């Protein structure tokens, strides 16, 4: 099938999921066209089945805001026609579902009927989409999608609570590709980052306030009082500088490494013992799943869809949002005993296998077939 995927190309969950899905579809013989404003960070254009089309927004001084949705809709129309694309899959409702719907309408005028699948990822519903300034447009474009999916049961429930949704929302969880991870666990050159007696604790995110970055630092501060440990902070975002200052104030800056954005996430996770995710809100927690497939135990909040991924007492522990004392206590319970740590690491890997792409990809393919067959149904 010829599939167009619209996503954000930056570091961040929805873009990563869209890119990995596109690559997996291409490996299964589908022709995949990524349409976005920059080449997605995890996309390597090494397959003849994968294409990337850049959306350009020409600057014009009259515009205070450049009209990205308009440029995206036009690019979608042109690309869909040029490559005879059969299906459109948009990731993150804002503004992708809105632009996708406009392109559908324009194409329908020319007798081309293209089904659109919208995958909801989290902040497009819980944080941004729910804002009154966006809500009517988001509600409209979700309802006008041919199929709507959400990455967790919790996000589905939040969507139905917050918006007046007339469509069925199907839950298709995020996934990982287990074939990328070797079963022979090595120490992955952990000596590059820590001494032999130190535990390595990692946090990876976009450093936005929703991630509760100060909690990460406070949990680590409590841990390192009791056991030798290093904290590795991966990612860039508005909360990063404050976190650096907090580490300085707490006198732990020599134990915390800020690595910035990285394309070597798996290498970093490979030498990590524990992953911290104390988020305020999280529809799924892809970063936790990526940690788990790398055999890393997870200490997290119980926000949103996280409990669907991190299983309490099995792969790690869940605590109420902001309860850094409980998170530190749970972390120390795991880290202080090597046998317990090994068990949690093993469990994390085993639970992560439930989310293998081989289980999730056929669900998407079946859904694409269904949407394609019904493409003449939703002619608005
Ligand atoms: O985590 C972020 O803030 C980025 C955001 C995104 O849309 O790129 O992530 C959301 O989508 C991910 C992939 O589906 C989920 O794993 C994250 O939990 C979700 N983030 C939030 O809900 C805050």
What does this structure look like?
With 380 residues, this protein is an alpha/beta fold. Helices cover 40% and strands 17% of the residues. It is built from 13 helices and 13 strands. The strands form two sheets. A seven-stranded parallel sheet has the order 3-2-1-4-5-6-7, with helices on both faces. A six-stranded parallel sheet has the order 10-9-8-11-12-13, sandwiched between helices. The longest helix is centred in the N-terminal third of the chain and has 17 residues, at 93-109. The two termini are 24 Å apart. The relative contact order is 0.12. The model has no long low-confidence stretch (mean pLDDT 94). Ligand GMT binds at residues 12-15, 17, 92, 121-123, 151, 174, 206, 208, 210, 281-286.
Question: How are the elements arranged and paired?
Answer:
Elements: E1 2-6, H1 13-27, E2 31-36, E3 50-54, H2 68-82, E4 87-91, H3 93-109, E5 116-120, H4 123-126, H5 135-143, E6 147-150, H6 153-162, E7 169-171, E8 199-204, H7 213-226, E9 229-234, H8 240-249, E10 256-260, H9 265-270, E11 274-277, H10 286-293, E12 297-301, E13 316-319, H11 324-335, H12 338-352, H13 357-373
Parallel strand pairs: 1-2, 1-4, 2-3, 4-5, 5-6, 6-7, 8-9, 8-11, 9-10, 11-12, 12-13
This protein binds ligand GMT.
